Amino acid sequence: MSKFPNREWHFYIDDMICFARKVLAYTTGIDQETFIASEMNYDATLRNLELIGEAATHIPNEIRATHPEVPWRQIIATRNRLIHGYLGIDNDTVWSIIRDNIPKLLSQLETIQREIDNC
């Protein structure tokens, strides 16, 4: 049973934004090699990527359909791969997600957050 059974979905958007910001904070100013070598940054970043995916599972399908620009299924699938370690973790893919996908996702989530705030 969920710890927050009646928690409103928009709080999960806030969580996703927080986790995405942490991912960027933990990886700003370093290259992939340094990221992989830094166990603490690596582990903290992977954990926050997992948490982004976990929060995404709590966004209702109707909201996901309203925002198809957000790759909800890919976010959740990434969470599952990271948590369950399917076929190992490909560091090149993780780095690509961090550099290419997280900034874009953060922007998309902040847009959704502004829409919520304006209601």
Summarize this, please?
The protein is built from six helices and no strands. The protein is an all-alpha fold. The mean pLDDT is 93.
> What string gives the helices and strands in order?
HHHHHH
How many individual β-strands? 0
Q: Provide mean pLDDT, rounded.
A: 93
Which range does the strand content fall in? under 5%
Q: Rg, please?
A: 14 Å
Number of helices: 6
Low-confidence stretches: none
Distance between the termini: 30 Å
Largest sheet: none
Fraction of residues in helix: over 70%
Give the class from helix and strand content and strand pairing: mainly alpha
- Principal-axes geometry comes out as globular
Describe the structure.
This protein is mainly alpha-helical and 119 residues long. The chain has helices at residues 9-27, 32-37, 39-56, 61-66, 72-84, 91-117. Helix 1 runs antiparallel to helix 3, helix 1 (9-27) packs across helix 6 (91-117) and helix 3 packs across helix 5 (72-84).
Q: What's the helix and strand layout?
A:
Elements: H1 9-27, H2 32-37, H3 39-56, H4 61-66, H5 72-84, H6 91-117
Helix pairs in contact: 1-3, 1-6, 3-5
